[in-house]
Design a protein that fits this description.
By secondary structure, the protein is an alpha/beta fold. The protein folds into 2 domains: 111 residues, no CATH class; 200 residues, 2-enoyl-CoA Hydratase, Chain A, domain 1, CATH 3.90.226.10. The protein has 12 helices and 12 strands. Strands 1, 5, 6, 7, 10 and 11 form a 6-stranded antiparallel sheet that branches. The chain has a 6-stranded mixed sheet with strand order 2-3-4-8-9-12, with helices on both faces. It starts with 15 loop residues before the first helix and ends with a helix.
Length: 354
């Protein structure tokens, strides 16, 4: 497990379709599924959960359940590796639900390494989906993920520079499938006027002792923590040069598909009252982590930390982040435009985006 992955809430842990269903396998791959897979994968996964899962006591329960199932022969009868991985995932979720925890079969691991899935047109999914002016003074940007790559970061910088005098900023996270902190830090630097503590991130100490510390960032500050935990406070650090975005009204659009890092964004903006959240309660995947390799080409996404509101001690795992204004997701942009004083519908405004 590499430390850069601690921010990688990313692709395999986000869209519900990717979480729920294993990818199709070739006949050759399916024929390889056997008792030996279970004998190799399950003990290794059980050990990694004990050593790395964000809550040690739950990690131990996962491990005990897997070992008991293995001993009982529950994983001996699968005729495909995808079916075996799905069964193990279901068993883990039955012990304690977690929006990110998942065992992946070798073909799923290969697909993940190739990057995000293609869209319906066969082209790679764009992380910045749409951007521009919806109306005079009303800037809009929608994201599918925060991958932290230079192309996307430069796109965010360019958008913020070109819309620096916006009176209203609408951030559309209704189809946001996860990622890291880099893109949101760029946004926070422009919309916050003062250094502001956002949320707290707790990582299991054993993980950092074994694999090294989380990737550092100026927006992350170490803080005292309970035993066995490494705690960091995530803050907004304003850019040196102020723009009109510091006083702009900010609206964040959410849906029940808004997940992971997008929920981190949502809680940060809601807790600080810097934005109004409009739409639906988010999906509820709040434990961050990364991928651990396992025998036979299998891998597991294992949560190693959690993000939470320092005022309440509560995160969003299993519950999601509730909007300030609850409307069906498809009506969220209409509502934001109405609050911005724009009479055009969301559909019409997007059609005229410039």
């Amino acid at each position: 497990m590499r430390r850069a992955l601690v921010f990688a809430f990313l692709f395999a842990c986000a869209p519900a379709a990717l979480l729920a269903a294993p990818a199709a396998e070739s006949a050759a791959t399916a024929s390889e599924a056997s008792k030996s897979d279970a004998r190799a994968v399950v003990p290794a996964l059980a050990t990694k959960l004990e050593e790395n899962f964000v809550f040690p006591e739950i990690g131990k329960r996962y491990a005990e359940a897997l070992r008991a199932k293995l001993a009982a022969g529950a994983y001996d009868g699968f005729d495909s590796r995808g079916a075996f991985a799905a069964a193990v995932t279901a068993d883990l979720q039955a012990v304690s639900p977690d929006g990110h925890l998942k065992l992946m079969a070798p073909d799923q691991v290969s697909s993940r390494r190739r990057g995000p899935p293609a869209g319906r047109d066969g082209k790679p999914v764009r992380f910045i989906d749409k951007q521009g002016w919806l109306a005079p003074g009303v800037a809009y940007i929608s994201f599918t993920a925060f991958p932290g790559d230079e192309e996307t970061l430069n796109g965010v910088r360019d958008f913020l520079a070109r819309h620096a005098d916006a009176k209203t900023l609408i951030i559309d996270a209704r189809g946001h499938h996860g990622g890291g902190l880099a893109e949101m830090d760029l946004i926070f630097a422009q919309i916050f006027a003062e250094p502001t503590e956002l949320v707290v991130m707790d990582t299991r100490l054993a993980v950092e002792q074994a694999h090294g510390p989380m990737e550092s960032a100026p927006t992350l500050r170490a803080a005292s923590a309970p035993e066995g935990v490494v705690r960091r406070i995530h803050s907004a650090l304003p850019a040196a040069k102020a723009t009109g975005l510091r006083t702009a009204k900010v609206y964040l659009l959410t849906s029940d598909k808004t997940v992971s890092a997008a929920e981190h964004l949502a809680l940060s903006l809601k807790r600080t009252h810097r934005a109004t959240l409009i739409g639906e309660t988010t999906r509820g995947a709040g434990h961050y982590g990364g991928v651990e390799e396992l025998p036979g080409g299998f891998a597991a996404f294992i949560p190693v930390g959690r993000t939470f509101d320092p005022d309440t001690g509560e995160g969003w795992e299993g519950t999601g982040v509730k909007p300030d204004i609850a409307v069906p997701a498809e009506q969220a942009l209409d509502e934001a435009l109405k609050l911005a004083g724009v009479s055009t519908s969301g559909e019409a405004a997007l059609a005229g985006l410039n």
